[in-house]
Amino acid sequence: MGDRYNIHSQLEHLQSKYIGTGHADTTKYEWLVNQHRDSYSSYLGHPDLLNYFAVCENEAKARVRFNLMEKMLQPCGPPPDKPED
């Protein structure tokens, strides 16, 4: 029983520390937004990937970086309407 409580408390700690780990009430939209933002931040953090995207799109690295930062605001479009209770 002690191990089960320990694992549960570790999971709660991770969920409070890192937003992208999700929880039982995470919607599909929130999960997709977290995945897209994680991907974009990884692209920005690896200069070789940024260079690759810049060459593929025939754009400057600064323009590609700017476009990725803009996409991080709403990567999956506006949030869906929440049903009223």
TrEMBL record:
Keyword line: mRNA processing, mRNA splicing, Nucleus, Spliceosome
Pfam family for this entry, one: SF3b10
Ranges in a coiled coil: none
A single GO BP: mRNA splicing, via spliceosome
Cross-referenced InterPro entries: SF3b5/RDS3-10, Splicing_factor_3B_subunit_5
Cell location: Nucleus
GO CC term, one of those recorded: U2 snRNP
Family the UniProt entry places it in: Belongs to the SF3B5 family.
Protein name per the record: Splicing factor 3B subunit 5
Species of the source: Cryptolaemus montrouzieri
Lineage: Eukaryota, Metazoa, Ecdysozoa, Arthropoda, Hexapoda
